[in-house]
């Protein structure tokens, strides 16, 4: 009897692991669904972390847009003076000046920017990361509307979008300078000018030959030099079709 008891005990002990060994696949096969749900939770956490990262990255851009909208209101009547002051400091005519010089100009023209807003603006327009401020890019972003927007004030001014999205050409310094120079005149007469453009566009394609485009501008006392016209065409007629979308052209000024 004493010898049989250990055997029973050992057999009992030996059967238990065997039972567990048999049951383990069943137990492991059942939690597969929870594992799947936990993996989904993991994916959600990864997705949420990516969204948080994307939000963090996009925040400065949104803030800059808010700042630029604020600046746009402040410099409607003084941007020409700002441009002239920047050009005087830009001896090499590269379209950029030291950040410290721009800050002095911004203070002179009362742009009313906080320290945080100044840091974001100067960081965004230090394009070459060399401590210099690209004032042409800054002014064209605040004064002109060359980047397409999905919803904006454009819809209120009823400037039709082209059937085919435009593929713009290079934005040269002279192009910015020309567009900024004629901006006040365009704002003054863009409605009748739009009607005149349409009267020349008999086929209603939204496109005008270069000669007709220049003639319409001339009728509204906007005369371009050959170099200015070339830079405008280089941007709006990248494919060298000798035609220009007058709606795209007007949209750059109407915000």
Description:
This protein is mostly helical and 255 residues long. Among the domains are: 64-143, Recoverin, domain 1 (Orthogonal Bundle), CATH 1.10.238; 173-252, Orthogonal Bundle (Recoverin, domain 1). Helices cover 66% and strands 4% of the residues. The protein has eleven helices and four strands, in the order H-H-H-E-H-H-E-H-H-H-E-H-H-E-H. It has helices at residues 4-29, 32-74, 79-89, 99-108, 115-124, 135-143, 154-157, 173-200, 210-219, 226-236, 246-251, and strands spanning 97-98, 132-133, 207-209, 243-245. The strands form two sheets. A two-stranded antiparallel sheet has the order 1-2. Helix 6 runs parallel beside helix 8. The chain is elongated and about 55 Å long. The chain starts with a helix and ends with a helix. 20% of the residues are buried.
Descriptive keywords:
255 residues, mainly alpha, Recoverin, domain 1, two-stranded antiparallel sheet, 11 helices, 4 strands
What's the gist of this structure?
The protein is mostly helical and 255 residues long.
